[in-house]
Amino acid sequence: MTFSGGTADRPPPRADLAATLVTRDQLSPDAQLLRFESEAPLRVLPGQFTMVRVDGGGLLRRPYSYCDLLDDGAFTLLVKEVGVGTRALMRLPVGGEVSSLGPLGTTFDLPPPDLTPVIVAGGVGIAPFVLFCRRLAESGRRGIVLLGGRRRPDLYLWETFERFGMDVRVASEDGSAGHHGFVTALLEAALADAGQPFLYSCGPTGMLLRVAELATAAGVPHQVSIERRMGCGMGCCLGCVVWAQPPSGGPAEYLRSCTEGPVFDAETIAWNRDPHPL
Amino acid sequence: MDMGVEVAGLRLPTPLIAASGTFGYGDEYRQVADYDCIGAISVKGLYLEPREGCPPPRIWETPSGMLNAIGLQEVGIRRFLAEKLPAVRALGKIVIANICGSSLEEYGELSKILDQAEGVSAIEVNISCPNVAEGGIEFGCDPDMAARATEVVRRGTRLPVIPKLSPSASDMAAVARRVADAGADAVSLINTIPAMAVDVETRRPRLANVVGGLSGPAIRPIAVRMVWEVAQGSRLPVIGMGGIANAEDALEFLLVGAAAVQIGTMNFVDPGVWRRTFDGLAAYCRRHEVAALRHLTGAMRPGTTG
ipTM score of the complex? Predict the structure, then answer.
């Protein structure tokens, strides 16, 4: 990152640990919040992810953002059914075990003290911001959270953000909650209200692109979490690449969303070089 | 228990080698894999110059397998030697440099550069990447081209030379015999199998490159058969690979004639594969009263279990 809000410079150690499912909250017909207890304590920074292996969930591990990290070392994952990997995880019985390889990847930096965080999230893209807002709240800070989805049930964990003291504003494509339309329609007002904003985003690529355009136009710093299909999460398969400028400078190249990402400085991303994944 | 093996003049403390393209430049897995169980590391394929690789999407999961079309994104030989090699050397592992060429000259040049490099113990010659099409030359399928690539690498170095064979060749043993005559010290096989998958909803290929290479347990029985054929049909030592996930899988390759094995895709799935496979091999040797693991190479018996 070209700007740092003061999070740890050294990444926390990674390990492949057994994790036991302890609770399951059905947030909507096709989304769950799963709480796991890890066999060993974890240190995780906001924005990082884990590669999860679950029986019946396909050959390769699947990446999930750490949603929250609780005091006792437990962590939560926000999972929406999209394929064989998520399906197996959502059908894992309580007491069942997965292996969790993490924490992996880059982190959302807390904004400098004079800037107000503005978060834009679509659907399960809200996941990494729970831990992020927990850290904000712990340091006595507030921010604006813009939450979008197709319909009201897709606006996950709304109350959690309110509990952290965030100013939550929502949009739904069917008009069943908040603004009728895309969440990005709420952005300009939020930037104005924030005064000196620092933007964070995670969600569908179309949304990220629109947020990036608005941020660039407004000259607002913007960190974005980008996930691509991953094979290893460890920087070795080179499957998950995004065309972007490396943090060290120099010309753009294919960077790994698992290693140089998932959190990137949005200005470094070449959004239109490759077709957008769904 | 003697778990060491010797192949291509390399004395490996364990028969398990990290497969090129699945273990980065060697140190990426240091926090999660048990490096004591790894006999050598074959690093990501190297060209003279850096390459940007194929556009995404680059990977797709298939039943018990993985399709990839990375297109050999890599940093180039000079940056490898300056920036990547020191880190893997510091781990005290035997390093095998995997090289690729778009011409015979490029193979020769890479060979000479590596011959002068400190800390590289052998050269694995990729003559068979399915995702790189340039100049229309397929070194891996044609025994003559495979031999010529091997020969130019051989001329450039005193290091052991290990051509990595393509499963697309119609007679892999014939390719092995030709590269043996051209100066190879061993062969490794198999590289991924050209394959593809289609999204029927959008009617588009799953990979931007359309065709990719299939790896993982899905290809293991094919790989075992090919290792057996090459071991039977040539005098070269064989390094076997293809979807190895545990000791039993590794033993299949050893018994049909492999002197050592590589683990690739399954390291992505479970970095604990190294410890589990190593311990399983040691347990097998104890259970079968085998004094040294190398005695298992080619030890398959005639007849069937029934």
Answer: 0.94
